[in-house]
């Protein structure tokens, strides 16, 4: 589904007050959107292999798909509803502004962090370049080693993944050295890694924490599930608190009260002009 379904934008079955309680997010066992979510993960966990991820790095590593500013990319996300997300069913650009505003309230002195909120999901423009949702959205996990227990639907979605029949890729460490560092790990392909690469290619002048948060914000099996410790370096453990701090706002600012985007735009345009101006290569 590429456009927002107007009948789903307002969800009368969700009590906005109840939705603010933490326990009601990331519910993968029940809820009105569950079939869509499971289908996305089944496809992802079947087709995300070492060869597949390498082919996507090659395909998108030239940044020849589109020329556009950050704000144009934010607006493009209005055409996208994330089919892996059991919590929201409204256009992604609202989520970008909600996350950014949550961070701004809690960290008023860190303007780079506000901008991370706006930027973090822009890699989802991949879906608008024709990529299937299972190669764009959802939680990420390392390919090239056995999936660990906290991966969503771990026991019911990997049986057709050919890497798990391959002895090089199916042990706990798989193709990696112990504590090699996440920057040497090949993550399942999606909007996190793509946006990280876009930021590097276009030389965003944001601090290293910003690059790191965006690259790993969907790696729930690590930052929330506490798995994959055997791949982490001391640098990863030093960065983890930043990813976790970001995640609070990514998750708990999701609510049906949609922000007034037009009044927020000038502030964020100022941050874009400061850290990532001009027309970018995507
Ligand atoms: Fe995301």
Automatic annotation (TrEMBL):
CC cofactor: Fe cation
Source superkingdom: Eukaryota
Residue positions binding Fe cation: 95, 120-121, 191, 217, 250
Localisation per UniProt entry: Cytoplasm
Modified residues (Phosphoserine): 30
Keyword list, A-Z: Cytoplasm, Iron, Metal-binding, Oxidoreductase, Phosphoprotein
EC number(s) given by UniProt: 1.13.99.1
GO-annotated biological processes: inositol catabolic process
Enzyme type, top EC level: oxidoreductase
An example Gene Ontology molecular-function term: alcohol dehydrogenase (NADP+) activity
GO cellular component assignments: cytoplasm
Main location: cytoplasm
This protein's pathway: Polyol metabolism; myo-inositol degradation into D-glucuronate; D-glucuronate from myo-inositol: step 1/1
Amino-acid positions noted as binding substrate in the UniProt annotation, renumbered to this chain: 26, 82-84, 124, 138-139, 217-218
Database matches in Pfam families: MIOX
Cleavable signal peptide: none
Cofactor, how bound (note): Binds 2 iron ions per subunit.
Reactions this protein catalyses: myo-inositol + O2 = D-glucuronate + H2O + H(+)
InterPro entries in UniProt: Inositol_oxygenase
Family assignment from sequence similarity: Belongs to the myo-inositol oxygenase family.
Name assigned to this protein: Inositol oxygenase
Species this chain originates from: Callithrix jacchus
Gene name of the encoded protein: MIOX
């Amino acid at each position: 589904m590429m456009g927002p379904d107007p009948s789903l934008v307002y969800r009368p079955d969700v009590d906005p007050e109840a939705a603010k309680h933490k326990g009601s997010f990331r519910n993968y066992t029940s809820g009105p959107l569950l079939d869509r979510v499971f289908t996305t993960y089944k496809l992802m966990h079947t087709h995300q292999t070492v060869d597949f991820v390498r082919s996507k790095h090659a395909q998108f590593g030239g940044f020849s798909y589109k020329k556009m500013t950050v704000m144009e990319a934010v607006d493009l996300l209005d055409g996208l509803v994330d089919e892996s997300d059991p919590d929201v069913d409204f256009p992604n650009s609202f989520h970008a502004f909600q996350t950014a505003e949550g961070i701004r309230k809690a960290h008023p002195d860190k303007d780079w962090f506000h901008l991370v909120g706006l930027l973090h999901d822009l890699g989802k423009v991949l879906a608008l370049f024709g990529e299937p949702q299972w190669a764009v959205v959802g939680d990420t996990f390392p390919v090239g080693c056995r999936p660990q227990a906290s991966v969503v639907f771990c026991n019911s979605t990997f049986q057709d993944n050919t890497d798990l029949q391959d002895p090089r890729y199916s042990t706990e460490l798989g193709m990696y050295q112990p504590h090699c560092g996440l920057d040497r790990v090949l993550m399942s392909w999606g909007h996190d890694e793509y946006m990280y690469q876009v930021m590097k290619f276009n030389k965003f002048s944001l601090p290293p924490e910003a690059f790191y948060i965006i690259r790993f914000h969907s790696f729930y099996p690590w930052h929330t599930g506490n798995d994959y410790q055997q791949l982490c370096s001391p640098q990863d453990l030093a960065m983890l608190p930043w990813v976790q701090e970001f995640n609070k706002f990514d998750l708990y600012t999701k609510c049906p009260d949609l922000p007034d985007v037009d009044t927020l735009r000038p502030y964020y345009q100022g941050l874009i002009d400061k850290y990532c101006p001009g027309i970018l290569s995507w």
